[in-house]
User: What shape does this take?
Amino acid sequence: MSAIRQTHPLLKAAKAAALFFYLAFALFPLYWLLKISVTPDRLIYAEGTALWPETATLDNFRRILFQSDFLSYFANSVTVSLGTAAATTLIAAGAGYAFSRFDFGGKKIVIALMLVTQMFPLLMIIAPIYKIVAAVGLLNSLTSLIITYTAFNVPFATFLMQSFFDGIPKDLEEAAMMDGCTRFQALRKVILPLTLPGLGATLGFVFTAAWSELLFALMLISKNEAMTFPVGLLTFVSKFSVDWGQMMAAGVLALIPSCLFFIFIQRYLVQGLTSGAVKG
Amino acid sequence: MARLELKNIAKRYGAVEVLSEVDLDIADGEFLVLVGPSGCGKSTLLRMIAGLEPITAGDFLIDGVRMNDVPPRSRDIAMVFQSYALYPHMDVARNMGFSMEIRGEDRSTRADKVAAAAKTLGLSALTERLPRALSGGQRQRVAMGRAIVRDPRAFLFDEPLSNLDAALRVEMRLEIARLHQRLGATMIYVTHDQVEAMTLADRIVVLNGGKVQQVGTPLELYERPANRFVAQFIGSPTMNVFPVVSDGAALVLGDGARLAMPDCDGATALGVRPEHIDVAAAGDGLIDGTADVVERLGSDTNLYVNAGDLGMLTVRRAGNLPVRPGERIGLHLRPENLHLFDKAGLALARRA
Assistant: This one.
């Protein structure tokens, strides 16, 4: 007993050190983002790699918020990300449920096709997508982004949702149907409440993916008023200079929705990880 | 309460036939047990009655009305699942009252019925708990409560006790028997455990390979099994069956011993239950053998006897038998309790 107690603090310290090192390593870029965003322009190159500027300023944030189109980029991104997350999750939930519960002709082919779509490099299909979007007259619209993002995220989100549905015993639905439910009532009253963690996880995953997508947004959007945040970020890069301070300030602000979103869904995520412990 | 009729029911998945030629007439208030080894189709049959599995061919009627195409919710049948299938996000009371909630009954009626059912099942103190905070036996009770509050036309049980430990299984078995006595409802119960089948059933249906082997009361199946499968499936320990040759007036056993038997034409196998073999001194019996293993259960003694050419025989005698492993003993078969089977494994009718 005493031997165990003696080695314990050492072990604890080692663990803490390992964790600390990992955290520092993972969070350092974020710290640097924050640091540069509060550094006055004149000090950025002058101080180089100092850990904290000698004078911190919120000027960059002020200029971003009031003297740039940042808020409009931001609003566009929120629209696109929420739209994509909602549309994708809805479609994926439906498809995942069908894959999990029903046997129908061509099921295997559909699943195989969905897997195949995940194998193409994006670069290969950018040109065709551009052509299609241009042909239907959706260039420079947020709708085009929501549609493309949804199309790209649905296969993976479907597999994710299917695995969540697979984790819910079929017996529960059957019991509900014996209890007088239609299949849809059973879905709504029994399955849906149990799938909330899965829905949360899928929403979060798709939201973040759409929030940080650059390639398609760059291709399909060229007008300022329809730019999403990652594209807008590039406007800070001009031919002759990069406005680092403002760019980083914008980056810090862009983290906020993602963080809020994850704070909001994290209890569902945690539930999702432990939901296997609840036996039907 | 209802009468259930199955007429020439069959179930196929593509070309695979899972069940065929099932004809059953289940009387109002009857307790029918479907029993058989795993994969015999008993659960599939139950699910077809419930409406969870489509019926490939044949007719299923409740009180004379064809039910083949009626969805489960409209059949007014309650089912207790092997996994209990309690809704994990609802407390016990809501679990039990869920069917009434769906039917749109008002809150106070629901509460009254749930409280009454909870009381009969000894769950009154637990109604606000979630299923995950219950023990296996309590979950089992909730699952039964969910069925009871509905007051359905028939109850279906799909191996409801198989997830419980032995002691609890006996207790719940009694509870189900009491429930049947009290409600007098039609119940269909699936199990692979022949003790459950024997103790609970008014009638037992023995299934094997998707076909009904025999339908009868527990004692009918025990005393007059229709074929070798039923003979060896019902009864514990399993019936001894060994090959014999019939010369019309007597059976000749593998070791040459003769057993006079007036009506044994066509018999190729002889079955005798372990409890129908008497033990005698070596050389005094019809068969001689060596006691290989002796199991003393207190109330009974099980002997596993190596009978030479006849193979291993199981013998069960009441009380504590003074036989030691390795000892030579003689065995007597009681003629009135013997079962004869023909080449196809069907039982021969006996006049005795």
